[in-house]
Amino acid sequence: MNLVYLTSPKGGVGKTTLTANLAFALQRLGHQVVVMDLDSQNSLRLHLGLPVSERRGVAAQSRLDGDWRNQVLETPTGVGLLPYGSASRAQQESFDALLRQDPDYLAQRLNTLLNQPGCILLADLPSGPSAALEALKRIPALSLVVMMADGSSAATLPLIESDSFLGPEARKGAFYIVNQVYIRSRLNRDVTEFFEQRLGASMLGRVHRDEAVPEAQASQRSIFDYAPSSAVIQDLENIARSISRMLPDAFGNNAMKFSLK
Ligand SMILES: Nc1ncnc2c1ncn2[C@@H]1O[C@H](COP(=O)(O)OP(=O)(O)O)[C@@H](O)[C@H]1O
Ligand SMILES: [Mg+2]
Question: Among the four residues 5, 71, 72, 259, which has the most C-beta atoms within 10 Å?
Fold first, then answer.
């Protein structure tokens, strides 16, 4: 199974942006990548060159049974997308209710995709606890917790370490990414160092802050194309290589399984 999901107790840390950028980085390593949007903001599609008018998605229609491999949209980037969809409040609530009532609903819909050799499924989640996070925790996966190098992300660390956010199983297999690190900021440097010491081998990497990231997003271009010399490129490549090494079946063979630690 090649499921990777991005989560964080705090919003605005860069999960959606990182999901898209890591998808591009993994694709450049030769992987076939599908991203899944489980956030009602439904914004991942905009990172992949799809228009605002694209309203389809797994939550935007009533109970979507069957194999979700058939729901994957092709995007101009070559990365496949399972969108959340432009869902009304009532549709969002019934999707959440479905995930709660039928805990294996997502696992069953994703079964074929997850068993497709060589395919990586990267899922973007809303911030904090959610029905979608609970559903994903039931599937063997690599969980990536995204944080920023500031006081409020540092303050969420005891919550993550206490198991109340991810639960004991998912927390054991969790890795951490510090995003938007501004190296000229003393606070950013100090907090990043604190994370590195505290998290040890579970720290997967850091990503620099660069205005080119939101600029690339605004112009609907990949950061790899928009700013190939940005320090962010190197950061993304390092993290993508680590993810690729840890996943079983990522190239269709049984490579090491979550063994970076
Ligand atoms: N490495 C980065 N450098 C600069 N800005 C970034 C970086 N990563 C994300 N951002 C910006 O941070 C904001 C929040 O990102 P987003 O991906 O929407 O966060 P989340 O999904 O966690 O709520 C966006 O405006 C995005 O462009
Ligand atoms: Mg988001």
Answer: 5
